């Protein structure tokens, strides 16, 4: 089965949280990993061969650009103890609509592994390149994290995570 390697500098991880004062946003590159899938001549995923994938990002890349928030985020995420956020694809199903899929898999973050599902759009750009876009809301308490309180700022536990992945075929 063809393997596509994620291009870290062209792939994005965005996390947005709400607070009592203003939104808090992390936006970084650095995804790593592989996606194994068959693409037909019509540029659609061939689901008769189950796709697989593994993605990771270093937790120390999760920065807001605000030093106070970043120190608290680093402390709460325990980046030395839990240096990677990881995802493994377990199942992919086609949805109504062009290039739309429901992906199920495991998310490993902060010492916890949770099963998650989300919808993605997968585009075959050319014979060597694919792009995947998806988003999902997570409750950080599910991963053993309490929402931070920074001075008078209260951060809510729901975080919207978006991923834009660009991967190129190996070989």
Describe the protein's topology:
Elements: E1 3-6, E2 12-19, E3 24-29, E4 32-36, E5 52-58, H1 67-77, E6 84-94, E7 100-109, E8 112-124, E9 129-139, E10 149-150, E11 153-169
Antiparallel strand pairs: 1-4, 1-11, 2-3, 2-11, 4-5, 5-6, 6-7, 7-8, 8-9, 9-11, 10-11
Question: Keyphrases for this structure?
Answer:
171 residues, eight-stranded antiparallel beta barrel, Lipocalin, elongated, 11 strands, mainly beta
Summarize this, please?
With 171 residues, this protein is mostly beta strands. The protein has a single domain, classed as Lipocalin (Beta Barrel), CATH 2.40.128. The protein has one helix and eleven strands, in the order βββββαββββββ.
Radius of gyration: 17 Å
- What is the CATH class? Mainly Beta
Total DSSP helices: 1
Query: N-to-C terminal Cα separation, in Å?
Result: 12 Å
Mean pLDDT: 94
Q: How many E-type strands?
A: 11
Which regions are unreliable across 5 or more consecutive residues at pLDDT < 50?
none
Fraction in helix:
under 10%
* Biggest beta-sheet profile: 8 strands, antiparallel, barrel
Helix-strand topology string: EEEEEHEEEEEE
CATH superfamily: Lipid/polyisoprenoid-binding, YceI-like
Question: What characteristic shape results from the CA principal axes?
Answer: elongated
The name of the CATH topology is Lipocalin
Q: List the strand order in the largest sheet.
A: 1-4-5-6-7-8-9-11
**Oligomer description:** single chain
